[in-house]
Amino acid sequence: MPFCVKCGIPVREGAVSCPGCGFDLGGSRTAAPPGPKLALDPGTLRHPKEVLYLTITAVIGGLVWLLLVWFAWLYLIPLAVVSWLVGQYFKAQIYGNAVRVSEEQFAELHRMAAHMAAELKLSRAPEIFVLSGQGALNAVAMKFLSGRYILVYGELVDLMLRRGAYDDLRMILGHELAHHALGHVSIWKNLLVGPAMLIPFLGAAYGRACELSADRVGMALSGDAAAAQRALLALALGSEALAVKVDPEAFAAQERYVPPVMGFIHELYATHPRMTRRIIELKEYEKRGALRCVVSGTAAQVAKMDRTSRLDV
User: Fold this and answer.
1) Domains of the chain, residue spans
2) How far apart are CA 80 and CA 149, in angstroms?
């Protein structure tokens, strides 16, 4: 069966446009199955804040482990055993209570995710599961010694697919794939920076910066800055009926009404940046032409743009 070259869903033979995303198939008799559009180097898309905080936490963590080098094995071996056991317990839970995305189950989602994993040059694509969020909207990237996973709540999938918002869904899946590609869920990387996470507020700041980096990669994978912003807005809004009407500009403007002092205090304790800030970050990134550089294959220029732009920390 042929597939849409943009969103990856199956289409009928001879289709001139995709019934899901409306993409013009060019009048070809068949649509080609999805393949990698471009090879992204996710490292060039890291947010400057992540680079800064990762450097700080890695240096601190490295020094602590160096001081504890003679005792480290007493910690690492039990940690590896516990991580493996937790991973096996997780597999027992997730395989028995969630639906695994595969060629046999939700093939269009499987191909979409496989396509993006190939773009990110992941050596092994994470297993994706759809499960009930009990009304919540969320997606989560996880990694154990036994494997990589992405969990997507069914309510979030519905919010995207019922509107035919395939590029929005690419942003969501791309964001979670980015956490794997950038090493945010790496056991050994988190072990290295672990000691620095004990410093008040530093761990949360690093985590928020990682979310901004994943947003950038997700936007690049969606190939559409507007779709990336709509996807984040849909998470904030939670309404299928209103999602098609919400104005990203008006939403971003709400940031002006956040009290500066309390906004700063709230951010100190938050695991994620405010959604208004995330939208603004994507808008500013797109305005600098970074998305065009990525899509055109000149991603090296992106890092230069970050170095010459102002860094607010």
Assistant:
1) 42-308
2) 18
